[in-house]
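---------- Forwarded message ----------

FYI, see the Gas vesicle structural protein record below. Original note from H. follows.
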Amino acid sequence: MTTPSRMPEPYGQGSGANLADILERVLDKGIVIAGDIRINLLDIELLTIKLRLIVASVDKAKEMGIDWWETDPALSSRARRDELTRENAELRERLARLEELEPSRAQEKEAP
């Protein structure tokens, strides 16, 4: 007499930790994956690629001192506004300096 074969349970079912628990733990603690790829030809380094990946929650990243997304204009509207404000101030300063130089150039042309 044969017994019907049981299909194996899908991955993760019946185990103590499910995907949500694992993800919560990773985001809470953070995980770092690092690696280097080097391509050499006859002891001459042609290419080096350094890979660094950090997976963590925003709060955990800030706790670790990582907050580059807040100052990247491509990711933050506030950073974009700040960059435009800074650029505008620099342009106004350059314009003011040019306008100060212009009267002295006009006087040079009038002199015999």
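H. also flagged this: The longest strand covers residues 44-55.
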